[in-house]
Amino acid sequence: MPVTQLTAVAIEKSYRKGQHHVPVLQGVEVRVQRGDFMAIVGQSGSGKSTLLHLMGLLDTPDVGEILLDGRRIDDLPASARNELRNRVFGFIFQSYHLLPELSLLENVLTPLMIRNSLWGYWKQRKACVESAREIIARVGLDHRLKHRPSELSGGEMQRAAIARALIARPQVLLADEPTGNLDTRTGEEITDLLASLNEQNQLTIIMVTHDEKVAKLAHRTVRLSEGRIEAAGEAA
Ligand code: ADP
Ligand code: MG
After folding, report:
1. Structural domain spans, the chain
2. Which atom of ligand 1 is nearest to the CA of 177?
3. Closest residue (by CA) to atom 22 of ligand 1?
4. Which residues are near ligand 1 (CB < 6 Å)?
5. What is the pLDDT of residues 6-32, one digit of tens each?
6. Tell me, which fold does domain 1-88+206-236 have in CATH?
7. How far is the CA of 217 from the centre of ligand 1 (A)?
8. Distance from the alpha carbon of residue 39 to the mean position of ligand 1, in angstroms
9. Across the strands, what pairs with 5?
10. Model confidence over 72-98: pLDDT tens digits?
11. Which one in 106, 163, 169, 175 has a CA-CA gap of 20 to 30 Å to 114?
12. Which pTM value belongs to this model?
């Protein structure tokens, strides 16, 4: 069933540093609808990654709720959270997190191996490889199937990471500084690719960035400041 709405309600999160509680999020409210492309901007240390991790169930809030189509999901049992994390959410990170020993094709296939168990994967291997090739072509890397990550440029590694995130057909893509390690032009190409996935595939995207120019390519930007979402604005 398609996900139509992901909401963070009154989120609070702090970290302990020695004796001190350092408040990071202090009542954050965010909502994305199906087909949104939202950027979250804010200074380094403002809690952008923390918020993204909470929305994708990689971490749990101290206070507040994460709702998927109105149903609370942050307090589900671990197995149900894992299932949602694997089936609903896709993640990409600043530093790609590709496995260096595997080819591009194998890297993109890993989520399917994990999801299906090795035996299940083996039985469906042909279909899996077919679908991986399709997605790799979609991100413009069909000429790099056998390459290892070390043989790819930064932009190509991020495309590979996007393909790996898409192989499980997520409905919400969470991107944490996806252009953070790339030069301006390559960063724009990656953001353009995200925008086209958003438009053509109705992929909902939440992208965290400290770069205002990158954020402009999203439909909507919200700013995280002093633990709260400051103001919502439509991008030009
Ligand atoms: P951003 O992504 O906006 O740079 P983060 O969400 O990574 O910010 O971090 C927000 C604040 O929380 C920072 O002060 C950071 O040091 C702190 N922080 C983040 N993760 C942890 C953690 N696991 N343990 C302790 N402090 C953390
Ligand atoms: Mg961060």
Report:
1. 1-88+206-236
2. 2
3. 15
4. 15, 24, 42, 44-50
5. 999 999 999 998 989 899 999 999 999
6. Rossmann fold (3.40.50)
7. 25
8. 18
9. 33
10. 999 999 999 999 998 999 999 999 999
11. 175
12. 0.93
